[in-house]
């Protein structure tokens, strides 16, 4: 058990009690998760069941230690992690230590040591599996950000190696629309909320017509869709996830109240949409920005966007790396830093960008997206 967070030799000694392991595979990255609790690893393995298959091209291996114990570190003087615009309350704190940083989740008591390898999660892990998943995924994100990828706030699906990303601010409907798009069995799940993108080819104007659309690599964060109840209630496929009594209560809510309700449920893709419907990497060929509204009376429309004229359309795609990000030198980024709109436009130089406007209509949006060639 870890009793004091700031004594790193003591922390490292405690890790010797994490004798159970599970190995996860994310494209060319493998992450071995060590724990002192076998049942906790069983939950992690079940969550990541689509990412347990052996990968032939793994080039980097990392270790994550998950220590099930009582909360620790409440007495320390934590510096506040700034919240994104519009979000209130004290959510996270941090303390920098030699070679790393402790991040504290105030609501759950969980503490996370972020460092280039042998990163640590300590606290009531079993009752906070979602935070353990996020921590593992932060190691995934760090690896690819260090390799020159840019993080985007988007969901995405893939067809034959070509990805369509859907972006908006929180609560804009991107997860709901992505899941609606998966009703087409030719489409595979890529990501629910984060993707990494990297322009690896010449700009579209420099490509031959047959080569256009190639050259922007994307990798989806290995995280299941985590959606609000309105998404489930209006899906014939997913409604069963909600208890019948909850369904009845939700049907009585005004549409605007249901839309804004924060009550998260995980959607396991393999259970709901079938096996072999999850991919991790693709070429990013389209980006659809959601600019629709519950209050609009206009017809739902999909229009092409020229980023050289309207670059700010992609504002909802931008995302800060956050307090867990360490660069190649081990340094932590400015917590308020975020790549410019111009940088994102450069990364999207090979991508067709569209804006979905008018009233919120998922069935109509499904049709419009299906009509794109």
Verbal overview:
With 373 residues, the chain is an alpha+beta fold. The protein has two domains: 8-146, no CATH class; 150-370, Rossmann fold. The protein is built from ten helices and 19 strands. The protein has helices spanning 8-14, 38-47, 129-146, 174-181, 229-233, 244-251, 255-260, 269-273, 341-347, 362-370, and strands at 20-26, 29-35, 60-68, 79-80, 92-97, 100-105, 111-114, 119-123, 150-152, 154-159, 162-167, 188-191, 195-199, 216-220, 226-227, 265-266, 281-293, 301-305, 352-359. The strands form three sheets. Strands 9, 10, 11, 12, 13, 14, 17, 18 and 19 form a nine-stranded mixed β-sheet that branches. Strands 1-2-3-8-7-6-5-4 form an eight-stranded mixed β-sheet, with helices on one face. The protein is globular.
């Amino acid at each position: 058990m870890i009793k004091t967070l700031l004594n790193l030799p003591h922390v490292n000694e405690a890790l010797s009690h994490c004798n159970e392991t599970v190995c996860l595979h994310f494209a060319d990255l493998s992450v071995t998760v060590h724990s002192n609790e076998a049942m906790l690893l069983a939950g992690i393995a079940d969550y990541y069941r689509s990412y347990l298959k052996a990968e032939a091209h793994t080039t980097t291996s990392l270790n994550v230690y998950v220590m099930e114990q009582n909360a620790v570190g409440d007495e320390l003087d934590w510096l506040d992690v700034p919240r994104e615009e519009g979000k209130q309350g004290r959510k996270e704190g941090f303390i920098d230590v030699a070679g790393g940083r402790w991040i504290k989740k105030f609501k759950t008591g969980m503490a996370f040591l972020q460092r280039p390898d042998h990163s640590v999660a300590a606290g009531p892990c079993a009752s906070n599996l979602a935070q353990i998943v996020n921590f593992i995924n932060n190691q995934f994100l760090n690896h690819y950000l260090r390799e020159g990828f840019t993080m985007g706030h988007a969901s995405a699906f893939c067809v034959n190696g070509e990805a369509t990303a859907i972006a908006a601010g929180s609560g804009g409907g991107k997860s709901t629309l992505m899941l609606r798009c998966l009703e087409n069995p030719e489409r595979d799940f890529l990501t629910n909320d984060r993707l990494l993108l990297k322009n690896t080819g010449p700009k579209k104007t420099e490509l031959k017509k047959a080569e256009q659309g190639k050259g922007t690599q994307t990798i989806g964060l290995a995280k299941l869709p985590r959606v609000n109840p309105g998404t489930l209630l209006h899906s014939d496929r997913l409604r069963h996830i909600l208890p019948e009594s909850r369904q009845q209560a939700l049907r009585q809510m005004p549409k605007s109240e249901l839309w804004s309700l924060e009550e998260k449920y995980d959607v396991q893709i393999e259970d709901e949409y079938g096996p072999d419907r999850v991919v991790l990497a693709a070429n990013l060929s389209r980006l659809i920005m959601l600019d629709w509204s519950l209050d609009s009376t206009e017809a739902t429309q999909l229009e092409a966007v020229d980023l050289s004229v309207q670059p700010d359309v992609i504002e909802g795609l931008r995302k800060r790396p956050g307090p867990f990000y360490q660069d190649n030198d081990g340094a932590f980024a400015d917590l308020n830093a975020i790549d410019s709109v111009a940088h994102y436009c450069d990364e999207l130089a090979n991508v067709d960008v569209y804006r979905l406007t008018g009233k919120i209509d998922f069935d109509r949006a499904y049709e419009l997206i299906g009509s794109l060639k």
